[in-house]
Amino acid sequence: MLDNTQVERLEAEAVNSAKVRQPMYAARKKIFPKRASGSFRRFKWLAMAVTLGIYYLTPWLRWDRGPFAPDQAVLLDVANRRFYFFFIEIWPQEFYYVAGLLVMAGVGLFLVTSTVGRAWCGYTCPQTVWVDLFLVVERAIEGDRNARMKLDAGPWTARKLALRISKHAIWLIIGAATGGAWIFYFADAPTLLVELFTGTAAPVAYITVAVLTATTYTFGGLMREQVCTYMCPWPRIQAAMLDESSLTVTYNDWRGEPRTRHTKKLQAAGQSVGDCVDCNACVAVCPMGIDIRDGQQLECITCALCIDACDGVMDKLGKERGLISYATLSDYNANMMLATAGGACSVDPSLVRTDDGLFSDRVAHFHVRKIFRPRTYVYMAMWSLIGLGLLFSLLTRDRLEINVLHDRNPQFVTLSDGSIRNGYTVKLLNMIPEPRTIVVSIGGLPGAEMSIVGVDLPADRSFAIRVEPDRLKMLKVFVRLPADQIHGAAQTFTLRVEDKASFESNQYTATFNAPEIAR
Questions:
Q1: What does the pLDDT average to over 429-439?
Q2: For a surface tag, which of 86, 134, 228, 256 has the fewest beta carbons within 10 Å of its beta carbon?
Q3: Residue 410, preceding peptide bond in cis (omega within 30° of 0)
C-alpha cells in the first residue's frame, strides 16, 4: 500500500481554475488529456463503438420492400420525396411523424438530463464521440500526455513533422469517411460509392463530403472542447433541467478536504486531513481541461473520466472509492452539513467517520430510487404518450388517399341537352410499393354519371383505375347531372375510392355547381 507522498503528482492546471479565472473567449490553451482507465472509460469505448457503428453501417443495411421500392433499410429519397426506415415509409405530407420523433428526442433529452445530468454530452454527443476517436489517433501516433506535451513544446524536426502529418492525414480521412457516410443516407449506398470513385456522382455529393470533412476535422481535431464551451447551447440550458435529485459528477469535499500530500505528518501534528492527496489526476484526464474540485462548471460534460482517475489513486492508497463520484445535490448538502457540524466549522472529515475509520451510518449514499421522483415520471409519461400516439397513428394510417380539386373556370358547363357538367382534377395516391386497381365511384347525386379523360369507356358511376406502386395518379374527371336532377346552385356528393383486394377505402366530399336559372 502506497503512502500519500508516493503517489505521483501530475503538473496539470485547470484551464478555468478558480484561482485564476480566464476572461470569456480567451485564447485557447492546449489540453493534453491523459488516457484514463476504469469502468466509465470502458463504457465510453462501448458508446463510441455503438454510435460510430450505427452511423457508418446503417446505410449498408438492406430491407426487401419488393420490386417497386428501394431495398436500402434507411433512405431519405429526396428525388422521390420519400423517407424509408425499415418497414416504415414516410411521405412528405406525413412529416409530422418526423416532427413527433424530434419532440420525443427533446423530451428524452430532458428526462436523461434531469436524472443523470449531461450523460448525452459525456457519452453519445457526436462532438464527444468524434473527439474521442481523434484522441485515439493522436495517442497512437504521438503517445500519451507527457509525450504529446514534450513533442508540442519541442522544436520542429523531421520526426515531429512526420508525426503531425500522419496524425492530420488520418483525421482528414476520418472526416472524409464521416461526410461519405452521411451522403449514403440520401441515395443507394453501393451505387453512390461507385459513382464517387469514378467521378460520376452529382456535384452536391462532392460538396457535401468536402463540407463535412472540413467541419469534422475542425470541430473534432482542432477546436475540441471549445465547441462545447462556446458554440453548444446545451450547457446553458441544462441548469434548468437539473434539481437537487439529479445525478452529477461531484467532488465530495466533505471527505476530501483539507487536501494534502503530507497526511502522516499532519496527522502526527493532530491536524485533520482529507482523502484528497492533490495529485491532479482528475485534471490530467479531463478532456475539457477543468478541475472538478472547483465544483459544477459549464464546461463539465460529466464524462466521469475524473472518477476513474481518482478511484485508481484511492485504490493505490487503500482508501474507499468515491472521492469523486456521481452524486445528487441533496446527498452532497446532507454530507456537508455532517462534515461541518451543521455549518459551525470548516470541513472536518473525521466527523463523517467512526473511530475505526469507516464512514458513519449518517453519511448519505446514492440509491437508484432517488432519481425516480414526480419530475421523472412526468417526463417518462410525456415521452411514452407521444411514442404511443405516433405508433397508433402509424399502424392505423390510410395507404390509399384521394384529393379532389374543382375546376375554377368555368365552374360548370351547360350541355346541349340541358344537363350540367362539372370538371374535377382527382388525385389518387397509392402509398404502398405495389400496383393496385382502384375503383373510383360517385356516392350520392342521383342520376349523375362521370367520364374520365383518357379512359375509353362510356360514362358510368364507377371506373376501375390502375395506379402504379408508390405513385400519385392524376385524373381529369367530368361529372354530368341531368337538368331534372338539379335541385340547387350547389349540391354535395362523394367521390369514393376502394381497393377491392385489401378492402381499403377513402372518400372525398365534393361540390357540384349549377346555374341559378336551372332551379
A1: 90
A2: 86
A3: yes
24 — pLDDT class (breaks 50, 70, 90): low
Instruction: Estimate to the nearest angstrom the gap between the alpha carbon of 429 and the chain centroid.
Output: 32
Distance (Å) of CA 362 to CA 244, 297, 323, 493: 19, 28, 17, 78
Query: In whole angstroms, what is the distance from residue 236 CA to residue 65 CA?
Result: 45
Tell how strand 449-452 and strand 74-77 pair up: unpaired
Asked if residue 334 lies in contact with residue 255, where contact means CB atoms within 8 angstroms, the answer is no
pLDDT top residue among 53 and 488: 53
Number of H helices, E strands in the chain: 16, 14
DSSP of 229-278: III-SHHHHHHHH--TTSEEEEE-HHHHPSP-S-HHHHHHTT----S---
Could you tell me if 76 and 83 are in contact, meaning their C-beta atoms sit under 8 angstroms apart? yes
CB count within 10 Å of CB 402 equals 21
Q: What share of the chain is helix, strand, coil (3-state, %, to 5)?
A: 45, 20, 35
Q: Quick one: DSSP state of residue 72? A: B
Element (DSSP H or E) covering residue 352: none
Give the phi and the psi of residue 242 in degrees, each rounded to 5.
-95, 150
What 3-state class would DSSP assign to 461?
coil
Angle at 192 between CA 190 and CA 196, to 5 degrees: 120
Tell me the sheet residues that pair with 77: 82
3-class SS of residue 208: helix
Give the per-residue pLDDT at 409.
86
pLDDT single digits (tens) 308-337: 999 999 999 989 999 999 999 999 999 999
Angle CA(406)–CA(410)–CA(416) in degrees, nearest 5? Answer: 110
Q: DSSP per residue over 75-106, as a string?
A: EEETTTTEEEETTEEE-GGGTHHHHHHHHHHH
CA 293 – CA 274 distance, rounded (Å): 13
Rounded-to-integer distance, Cα 489 and Cα 202, Å: 54
pLDDT at 512 over 90: yes
Answer whether residue 20 shows pLDDT above 70: no
For the record, the C-alpha cell of 209 comes out as: 463530403
Tell me the three cell numbers of residue 303: 464524462
Q: Alpha-carbon distance 154 to 444, whole Å?
A: 89
In this structure, are residues 254 and 362 in contact, taking their beta carbons and an 8 Å threshold? Answer: no
Coil, helix or strand at residue 476: strand
Number of residues that this document lists for the chain: 519
Identity of residue 326: Y
Residue type, 312: G
